[in-house]
Structure formats: structure tokens, C-alpha cells
Amino acid sequence: MLYVDDMLIAAKHKSDVQKLKDLLSAEFEMKDLGLAKKILGMEIYRDRSQKKLFLSQKGYIQKILSRFGMSTAKAIDIPSVANAHLSIAPRTAKEKEYMSRVPYASAVRSLMYAMVCIRPDLAHVVSVVSRLMGEPG
């Protein structure tokens, strides 16, 4: 027995999509939900005039920023800055107390998901911050 929850079909020609749907519906009970707007937390945008498809994780990124109290953080054009100084151990008692309340590993996992899906530009930053998972400073 096989249960398929969701499925996306993409093809160069609409007729090919319809043929596949017809074949599948002849074998399986299925429901056509129309054009996909979202998959795995990613929004799908189409520019039919240019025949392009775009994926966005804007909603996901806003959600994780909110979850980790960074909704008001200033946006920058690059994933990291050259003069960022990260340390393995907190420098002060106040910093150590603050970091003990930060779900650091969960934040890094959230960044990894974004990186793997559609943000490969985050790979270096995620690699650097992952090294501090034991005791972030």
C-alpha cells in the first residue's frame, strides 16, 4: 500500500501534465488541487511571460526571525559581514547568562533548512556558526 500526500507535476507542455494526471488517476484515487502556491514551506511564483518559476522562503524567514526575537533586525545584502567576531566561550558573565537562554542549535537548524532549500549563499555562514554549537559565545 502506498499513500502519497502531495505531488507536484511540472512539464514543458501543459498537455504532458494532463497525460500524466490521466494515467495516475486511472490507477489511483486522486484529487487535483490546481496550481501549487506552496511546497515544503516555500512559496511558488510564476512569470508566465518569461516562462520562469521562482521559489521564495520569505514567509519562512520572517517566521524564524520572529521566533528568535529578531523581527526588527536590520537587513543586509550579504549573509555575513567581514568584521564579525564569534567566540567559542562567552566573554562576560552577562553574555553567558544571555546565551544560556538562546536556543542556538534550533536557530542553526532553521538556517540550515533555508540553506539546503534555496539559499546556498548561507552555506559559509551556517558552517561558521555550526562550529559554535557546543557553547556559543
Please give a handful of descriptors for the protein shown.
mainly alpha; three-stranded antiparallel β-sheet; 137 residues; single chain; 3 strands
Q: Summarize this, please?
A:
The chain has 137 residues and is mostly helical. The chain has helices spanning 14-27, 58-67, 93-100, 104-117, 123-130, and strands at 38-39, 42-47, 52-56. It is 39% helix and 9% strand.
Descriptive overview:
The chain has 137 residues and is mainly α. It has a domain of 95 residues. 39% of the residues lie in helices and 9% in strands. The protein has a 3-stranded antiparallel β-sheet with strand order 1-2-3. Helix 4 runs antiparallel to helix 5. It starts with 13 loop residues before the first helix and ends in a 7-residue tail after the last helix.
Could you give the order of strands across the largest sheet? 1-2-3
Principal-axes geometry comes out as elongated
Sheet with most strands: 3 strands, antiparallel
Q: Please write the string of helix (H) and strand (E) elements.
A: HEEEHHHH
Map the helices and strands.
Layout: H1 14-27, E1 38-39, E2 42-47, E3 52-56, H2 58-67, H3 93-100, H4 104-117, H5 123-130
Antiparallel strand pairs: 1-2, 2-3
